[in-house]
Amino acid sequence: MKKNTLMMMLLLATFTLSAQVKEDFKPASTNQPGHQYPMVNSQRMVRAQISAPDAKSVKLDIGGVKYDMVKNAEGVWTGESAPQDEGFHYYQLEIDGASVPDPGSLYYYGASRWGSGIDVPAADEDFYALKNVPHGETAEVYYYSSVTGSVRHCYIYTPAEYKKNPDKKYPVLYLQHGGGESEHGWAQQGRTGIILDNLVAEGKAVPFIVVMDNGSDVYGPNNPRPERPAQGQRPRGGFDFAGPFRNILEKDLIPMVEANYRVVADSQHRAMAGLSMGGMQTHAIALANPKLFSWVGIFSGGVFTVDEVSQTPGFRENNKLVFISFGSRELANRFGGAADPKPITEELGKTGMNTVFYVSPDTAHEWQSWRRALYQFAQRLFK
Amino acid sequence: MKKNTLMMMLLLATFTLSAQVKEDFKPASTNQPGHQYPMVNSQRMVRAQISAPDAKSVKLDIGGVKYDMVKNAEGVWTGESAPQDEGFHYYQLEIDGASVPDPGSLYYYGASRWGSGIDVPAADEDFYALKNVPHGETAEVYYYSSVTGSVRHCYIYTPAEYKKNPDKKYPVLYLQHGGGESEHGWAQQGRTGIILDNLVAEGKAVPFIVVMDNGSDVYGPNNPRPERPAQGQRPRGGFDFAGPFRNILEKDLIPMVEANYRVVADSQHRAMAGLSMGGMQTHAIALANPKLFSWVGIFSGGVFTVDEVSQTPGFRENNKLVFISFGSRELANRFGGAADPKPITEELGKTGMNTVFYVSPDTAHEWQSWRRALYQFAQRLFK
Question: CB of B107 within 8 Å of any CB in chain A?
Answer without folding.
Answer: yes
